[in-house]
Amino acid sequence: MVTRRDFLERTALVTTGALATGRIGRSAARFFPATGSGPTRGMVPTVLGPIDASKLGFTLPHEHLVSSSAGFWRAWPEFFGGREKFISMAADKLRAAKDEGVDTMVDLTTFDLGRDVRIMQEVSRRSGVQIVACTGHWHDPQLSMGARTVEELTEFFLREIQRGIEDTDIKAGVIKVATDQEGVTPFLEKALRAAARASKATGTPIETHSWALPPNPNGPLQADVFESEGLDPAKVSIGHSDYGDIAYLTGLIDRGFSVGMDHVSRGVLPPGMAAPAGMEPYLWEVKTQRIKALVDAGHANKLLLSNDWLFADSAFATGTLAQLERANPDGILFLTRRVIPYLKQLGVSNAAIHTMTVENPRRFFGGV
Ligand SMILES: [Zn+2]
Predict the structure, then answer these.
(1) Integer distance in angstroms from the first to the last C-alpha of the chain?
(2) 107 and 127: one domain?
């Protein structure tokens, strides 16, 4: 049983820099035993309890059941047709994914994006797909998180990793943080630093949302913040990096970071539509060829492949998801149905595909 005082003492140690500088004395070590205060090495928390990392299997590391905002499910469940209807729809879709070989999905919906862990739990139970929940924060702060300090955000992330999400014992298995077109704003820098500190204290990995489009891609700026916190880059995957060219991607990989190639499905055009001028580098075929080039360069062990798909949305204008579905009717199965077959056609080996879809997630989320 962790008392509030224990919890505060523990987080105080993190935030006073004792951990950041590696000065963990005997008394501090009391709060960070090898097991118990963070995910046990080799184990991954899921919404149905911890599992051995070797059980993750084929993993989609960057997906969403729903993107919304904090409290929306409670305030207006009818918007999504009600909880039960949404749960059975999402479970049906994930059961189909399970039938096609998807064992695990990591849901990168943070608290502020409308995460509902009880819905995740029920969808996992009914579909048989293992779901890993996240802590962290997206790039659009609401009042109560926007006003928090780095230390307070660290405390919140640790609460969700160590104690549980809301009043459940479901623990977060990954920390999600973000920067978008606006770059590293003061709030987002606080969130990035807090993520680094919570990761250092617990070993929990970090996945980001980044803006990788020229002229101001900001994955390297995220990397700068993580490095300045002394975080091992092997703990971080810079997400949505597939908009970047090979030089951009290898720049991050050479610094030790993994890259999330998780927006390939956004490069598919609706039937009959010609590619708009300037879109060529972002077409799904071109992005897939870039994955192949990185594999050929020996970087398969730094690539995390996913779809960043969602089954419901209230964060964007009504009709946005329908538009995405028109372009990509395969939804969360775009990777398995189109990207992987195309990679094989390009000559990427089954072993490299296994590395990217099974071994990398096992190592990244399990720390082994
Ligand atoms: Zn996402």
Answers:
(1) 28
(2) yes
